[in-house]
Amino acid sequence: MMAIPGSRSSSTTSTNKGTCSVCIKAVKWVPVLFILSIVVWSYYAFVVQLCIITIESTIQKVIYLVVYHLLFFMFIWAYFQTIFTNIGQVPSQFKLPEGELERLTHAETEEMQNAILERFSQNLPNRNRTINGNVRYCEKCKHVKPDRSHHCSVCGECVLKMDHHCPWVNNCVCFTNYKFFILFLGYALLYCLFISMTSVQYFITFWRGHRHSTEPLGGLEGMGRFHILFLFFVAVMFAISLASLFFYHIYLVSVNRTTLEAFRSPVFYHGPDRDGFNLGRRKNFMQVFGENPKLWLVPVFTTSVDGVIYPVRAQPPSSSYHTMENSQTSLGDGTAFDKRPSTEDMEELLYEINYEDE
Ligand SMILES: [Zn+2]
Ligand SMILES: [Zn+2]
């Protein structure tokens, strides 16, 4: 059988690429494995070294173990939900059909491209614009971006209500798992605080024993005391960083803003508006956590919006940004929707640039 010239090198290249992408995928799991190994070690240090070996009172052992396992279970549940929840997909109605895509690719000027996108997005529920007031379009995914979505370079696709890409969960924090992420931060914080508070007295005992070597160590011997010493240290360090992140995200939920929107305000027809989606604390909270209080603290999906359509707040009448005439339709409950440019405006614009409608 004759060898095809170049076939070996091309197959070697594709094998290399395959191996490379597997390596990159594996490396992305390193932070998650790091967190999990600390959690497994903390389980051993708390349950075995502190509760079983060190603590003498049976009642104290039982109370500590019950509370610990409850927090441990909720924390791991929320963490795994954040990691393994699919980031979802941009609905197909946002994807440009072949014909439109062809026209867009061959459009000679930016105005023509904008007009094609304006026309296509007439029936889409979009209110967000680019900073220049144009339709938001993803060159890589070839679709119009739904409101609050952004292209994640790590995930390689547009992500609905993208908050940020988190290496510690190897996933995008977004519309589908934002509630899980906040619960994960909250339960992890409680887990660390509980460990810190229950191990602090043994930590102090260790230091006293260390300074006065003749003093008894209250049951802490050999490696056990180092496990408990580090358990306290690690729990306090994680509690500090988790607390700042947790309270920051609670603030973001209260003003209905993603981390990305906190850095760069979303742009509407009337201009950039960092409070554009802010409907008041109660509505903002319910948008993420749902309307059933029994499920607020449970890491199951209860978010009350569809990930594509987000109500916007009523705008002050003086605000103006875009040259196109702009007003709003109010729902009467403080929720309002921007009016998009009329079809007549668009047809006029398309006519001016010799748009051929087939
Ligand atoms: Zn994209
Ligand atoms: Zn991502």
From TrEMBL:
Region span, Disordered: 319-338
Entry membrane topology: Multi-pass membrane protein
PROSITE patterns on file: DHHC
Polar residues composition-biased segments: 319-332
Transmembrane segments: 32-55, 62-80, 180-207, 228-251
Pfam families assigned: DHHC
Catalytic activity: L-cysteinyl-[protein] + hexadecanoyl-CoA = S-hexadecanoyl-L-cysteinyl-[protein] + CoA
Domain Palmitoyltransferase DHHC: 134-264
Predominant subcellular localization, coarse grouping: membrane
Subcellular location field: Membrane
Alphabetical keyword list: Acyltransferase, Membrane, Transferase, Transmembrane, Transmembrane helix
EC number: 2.3.1.225
Family: Belongs to the DHHC palmitoyltransferase family.
Domain notes: The DHHC domain is required for palmitoyltransferase activity.
Name of this protein: Palmitoyltransferase
Origin species: Nicrophorus vespilloides
